[in-house]
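Memo to structure team: turn this sequence into structure tokens by end of day. - J.P.
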Amino acid sequence: MLKTTPEPAEAVADRLHSVAIHLLRQLRQEDLSLGLGPTQLSALSVLVFGGPQTIGALARIEQVAAPTISRLVDALVAAGLAARETDAKDRRVVHVSATPAGSSLMQRGRRQRVQRLVRLLEDLDPAELETVGSAAERLAQLLRRPRAAGE
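Reply from structure team:
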């Protein structure tokens, strides 16, 4: 029996990075039917799956400047997918939330993406599927852990 040595973390990270990019490109094909661009879908996804946000928080999450997020939110509001509300205590603060139409659109998009993943995963045998599932869960745990400054 051949003894295999574990791959160094850098090699695994490099392969995972490449696979993640290719996987996301495939899944984005499902988004075309939703009628929004990737930046609008990303912002709406935050509102649907993460809950209402202030304009400032949404800009930080999306890693864009305030004017950029304001234009994105304007487009989502005009499409009936998001709503703005001025904070009752501080009128300078604006809260943004998804509308029922926005939530419905993102739920449909998520179902489409998941179904595309299901079609890919159907080619795995049960042991491979369990390995992928365990790895996905462990990566999710690592992503949820608090990060030190500078990480």
